[in-house]
Design a protein that fits this description.
It holds the Pfam family SBP_bac_1. This is Extracellular solute-binding protein. The protein is globular. 44% of the residues lie in helices and 13% in strands. The chain has 2 domains: 151 residues, D-Maltodextrin-Binding Protein, domain 2 (3-Layer(aba) Sandwich), CATH 3.40.190; 204 residues, Periplasmic binding protein-like II (D-Maltodextrin-Binding Protein, domain 2).
């Protein structure tokens, strides 16, 4: 780097001498004739975004071209795309050992509090993109009144359903558990598997946790999370969460432990089941298999109170700038380009993500608009903050529960203990 800087300075001095001797000032281009470009390698850790690698790599190439033209900086990328199953643990290890990427992905609701307390997140409040964030989005990527991440996936989700199957059988998304049982019965009577089960990756059965807990703490058990954070509560208090889990597990496809997210997307796209407890973040994967498929998003019923059937509103995958990043200025340029007023419309559409910027002008997809109809009626909640360790453990525990290696009581004890351990760990920070 020192050699590069020395060379750059020398070339600049030489350029000034030539300009003066000719009597013509060098107006130059946008990089002011700076000579050899500065070379920067950005390290990017994009966990859980592996299915979008082509879109991101193409967009990063656009950024590199822009940065070269405007700032005479030649940017290359050292990009990693680990899968959702183990990316969080890999990232924690990297950060703890000092192998810090410039930009890394994290789950806004789950991860921002812990990563912020650990000092890993740079303050991005003064960056141009921060002023563009939609009002409902900005608080979810902020802490202590600081914007600390750029939102990629803003999601409104519950479960996915196959619209053709529902329409052919005259079915509508149920609003209560009893109605869901009737839907399941009609599907079974017509030899259609009600639910797709894809439990090979533990993060998928983990999705039951935010859906059930979120609905209950926003209706009948509003003090559950506060009590758990004070070591005064138990999952036994919301044991009814197992009612919908049991219904799904008893009416699902075979080979649950052989099917992961990619295979699940393919099976759902091919009509192997009518419903899938999964989010619209899989839209791209589903439509790559069957671009004619029509699917909807509906709230998952958990009991017989229709007011408890709520859409989960969250910001999941977000991008953060490491507080100890080696190339902060260029990394900041990249984050701002990700919400560029023009280019980002194409990026977010290609990813099939929701708009997050006030300047996004693209039309949302049909499943996004369907989920929004529930949110517009007030049938939604902002995803509850549950310790990451509890979410991770719930996925493993619910795998074991499906496999009959753990009972309900075992799962409750396991999750209670994990939450208490998480409280103890947080108190030491």
């Amino acid at each position: 780097m020192k050699k590069a800087l020395t060379t750059t300075v020398a070339l600049m001095m030489l350029g000034s001498t030539i300009a003066c001797s000719s009597g013509t000032p060098d107006k130059g281009s946008s990089n002011n004739g700076a000579g050899a470009p500065q070379k920067v390698e950005l390290k990017l850790f994009l966990g859980g975004l592996d299915r979008f690698r082509d879109q991101f790599d193409k967009y990063f190439a656009q950024f590199a071209e822009k940065e070269k033209k405007e700032k005479n900086i030649e940017v290359t990328f050292n990009s990693e795309y680990p899968g959702s199953e183990n990316s969080a643990q890999i990232l924690k290890t990297r950060l703890a050992t000092g192998d810090v990427p410039d930009i890394f992905s994290l789950h806004a609701v789950n991860d921002i509090p812990d990563y912020y307390r650990a000092g890993y997140l740079a303050d991005l409040s003064s960056q141009p993109f921060a002023a563009k964030l939609q009002e409902g989005i900005k608080p979810i990527v902020s802490i202590d009144n600081k914007v600390v991440a750029l939102p990629m996936e803003s999601v409104q989700w519950g479960y996915l359903y196959n619209k053709k199957i529902f329409n052919d059988l005259g079915l509508k998304p149920p609003t209560t558990l009893t109605e869901m049982k009737a839907v399941v019965q009609k599907l079974n009577d017509n030899k259609v598997k009600p639910f797709l089960l894809s439990y090979k990756e533990s993060w998928i059965p983990q999705l039951f946790l935010p859906l059930t807990v979120g609905s209950l703490v926003n209706t009948s058990h509003k003090d559950f999370i506060d009590k758990m954070n004070k070591n005064e509560g138990s999952f036994a208090d919301i044991k009814e969460m197992f009612d919908i889990i049991d219904l799904v597990n008893a009416n699902g496809t075979d080979r649950a432990f052989e099917i992961g997210n990619d295979d699940g997307s393919a099976d759902f796209a091919n009509g192997k089941a009518a419903m899938w407890v999964q989010g619209p973040w899989n839209a791209d994967s589903i439509l790559k298999v069957n671009d004619k498929m029509e699917f909807g998003v509906a709230p998952l019923p958990i009991n017989d109170d229709p007011k408890s059937s709520l859409i989960n509103v969250s910001v999941s995958t977000s991008l953060a700038l490491a507080s100890s990043a080696k190339n902060k200025e260029v990394a900041q340029d990249l984050l701002n380009f990700i919400l560029d007023d023009q280019a980002s419309n194409d990026l977010y559409q290609s990813l099939k993500f929701n708009p997050v910027s006030k300047n996004h002008t693209f039309k949302p997809y049909p499943w996004v608009e369907e989920a929004a109809t529930y949110a517009n009626k007030g049938l939604f909640y902002k995803e509850s903050t549950i310790p990451t360790a509890v979410k991770d453990e719930s996925g493993k525990a619910l795998q074991a529960y499906y496999n009959k290696k753990l009972s309900k009581e075992d799962v409750i004890k396991d999750l209670d203990k994990t939450w208490k351990d998480a409280n103890a760990a947080a108190s030491k920070k």
